[in-house]
Amino acid sequence: MESEKMGLSMEKRIFFTIFVALTVSGFIIICTLGRSVHYHKVQAKLAAISSESAEPLYSVIEYQGGIGVFRRGSLEPYMKIDLPPQLLSEYDREQLRKGIRIYSDEELKQYIEDLSS
Fold this sequence. Notes:
The protein is of the alpha+beta class. The chain has helices spanning 2-52, 90-98, 105-116, and strands at 58-63, 66-71, 79-81, 100-102. The protein folds into 2 domains: 1-53; 58-116, no CATH class.
């Protein structure tokens, strides 16, 4: 009788050990899948954002003897910088002829400050 109780007790321990192991494994798998799905969603959003921002917000070019800042797709300057291009180095003048691409308002502000100094 006692050996039957001991055998039953051992079977219960084995059952609960396997049950707990399966439960923990299932939890880990579900969490891992959830993180994977989240990671792929974030990557998709980042890819969409980077493809949108691939085109510059502004272009800075030499314009009518001065320096013009053009918004994306505009044919008229958004602003003119009062600095004769002749005061710039040959390299900077060449860059202005080609057009300098600016991707943010902060970058534009920094570029104008750099030209002014």
